[in-house]
């Protein structure tokens, strides 16, 4: 590897070597053989009906509660359009996904960040705000292997958040694209499951992280009345989503490709996380981080006095890049960064961290 080859810790996507290309070829062939009309026709805004049925069965809900979209970001956009009321408060984690902040601010939401700990959003800080009179429209939470921090919401906090939503009458938007990318620890029930049909939770997820980002297939699960409203928005936006991609994903799932793909991705990312932790301990011993149990991302806090706005160009001069922590916050985070290990091969990681260390030393 030469210094001119960019090592990118910036993009939250799997590297091509862990994408099941041959499995997707077979799924595409099967989709076109078994249902060419459904795969190649316009369809409707509900998405590809067999995939919608598959997802409804997987989540234990009626099909009317599911809508399949062009990626989960499209699902997020529709939900924000439906739920955000200009000037009204919306709870987010601090930090949270930068596109979430952008989408909410574009719709003039009153964004209220609540601190994020290793075990998830600070539910008692939120309880204090609610007791003080805050009445949010909804709370946006990424419960598993959160983007950007990599943290997971504990079972106790999931239960407490649902209690607060019931007590103070707000919706929980459970944004969960990483749920199946777990390579350590025990899986936790979703808040959608814990809600037991009370209608407090709107759930969104994606196949971008488990199958391939290029398929752009996501979905929402929620109360039938809300999903029907989102369906109208989807119809007016694109009539129908990408039926071919959804038909391929459906075949991939029902033919066993999804389980195989998840196993491949999780094994690879477990190795990458360990390699990244070892490299950080070796080359940046003063950095603070928590190894995630899954997902794509690690949040790293650098020593006092470091400014990531200066570190990033120095790093890119040395052939390595990352995303500044400030991108995921309304304020603060000047010495934090998000490292995405999903798109970096294991044999690139130590070299990438070494370049980061060299960039940091150049600022001293």
Strand percentage: 15-25%
Indicate the overall shape: globular
Query: What is the CA-atom radius of gyration, in angstroms?
Result: 21 Å
Q: So, CATH architecture of the largest domain?
A: 3-Layer(aba) Sandwich
Question: Helical percent range?
Answer: 40-55%
> Total strand count, please?
14
What integer is the average pLDDT? 96
For the termini, the CA-CA separation is 27 Å
* CATH topology-level name of the largest domain: Aspartate Aminotransferase, domain 2
CATH class type of the largest domain: Alpha Beta
How many independent structural domains? 2
Unreliable stretches, pLDDT < 50, 5 or more residues?
none
Structural class: alpha/beta
Widest sheet, order of strands: 2-9-8-7-6
Assigned CATH superfamily of the largest domain: Type I PLP-dependent aspartate aminotransferase-like (Major domain)
GO biological process, one term: alpha-amino acid metabolic process
Cofactor: pyridoxal 5'-phosphate
Protein name: DNA-binding transcriptional regulator, MocR family, contains an aminotransferase domain
Keywords: Aminotransferase, DNA-binding, Pyridoxal phosphate, Transferase
């Amino acid at each position: 590897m030469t210094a001119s080859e960019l090592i990118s810790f910036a993009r939250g996507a799997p590297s091509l070597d862990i994408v099941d290309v041959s499995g997707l070829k077979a799924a595409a062939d099967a989709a076109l053989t078994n249902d060419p009309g459904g795969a190649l026709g316009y369809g409707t805004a509900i998405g590809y009906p067999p995939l919608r049925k598959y997802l409804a069965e997987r989540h234990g809900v009626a099909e009317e509660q599911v809508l399949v979209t062009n990626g989960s970001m499209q699902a997020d956009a529709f939900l924000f359009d439906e739920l955000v009321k200009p000037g009204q408060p919306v709870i987010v984690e601090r930090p949270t996904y930068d596109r979430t902040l952008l989408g909410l601010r574009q719709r003039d939401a009153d964004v209220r960040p609540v601190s994020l700990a290793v075990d998830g959003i600070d539910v008692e800080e939120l309880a204090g705000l609610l007791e003080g009179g805050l009445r949010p429209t909804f709370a946006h939470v990424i419960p598993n292997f959160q983007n950007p921090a990599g943290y997971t919401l504990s079972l106790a906090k999931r239960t407490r958040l649902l209690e607060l939503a019931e007590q103070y009458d707000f919706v929980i938007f459970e944004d969960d694209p990483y749920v199946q990318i777990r390579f350590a620890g025990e899986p936790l029930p979703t808040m959608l499951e814990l809600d037991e049909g009370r209608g407090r939770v709107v759930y969104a997820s994606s196949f971008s992280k488990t199958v391939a980002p290029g398929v752009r297939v996501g979905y929402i699960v929620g109360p039938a009345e809300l999903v029907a409203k989102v369906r109208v928005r989807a119809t007016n936006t694109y009539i129908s989503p990408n039926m071919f991609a959804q038909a391929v994903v459906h075949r991939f799932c029902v033919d066993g490709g999804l389980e195989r793909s998840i196993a491949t991705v999780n094994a690879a990312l477990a190795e990458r996380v360990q390699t990244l932790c070892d490299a950080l301990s070796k080359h940046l011993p003063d950095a603070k981080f928590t190894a995630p149990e899954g997902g794509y991302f690690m949040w790293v806090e650098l020593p006092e006095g470091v400014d990531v706005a200066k570190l990033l160009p120095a790093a890119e001069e040395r052939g390595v890049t990352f995303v500044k922590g400030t991108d995921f916050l309304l304020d603060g985070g000047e010495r934090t960064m998000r490292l995405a290990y999903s798109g970096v091969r294991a044999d690139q990681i130590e070299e990438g961290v070494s370049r980061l260390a060299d960039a940091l030393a150049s600022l001293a």
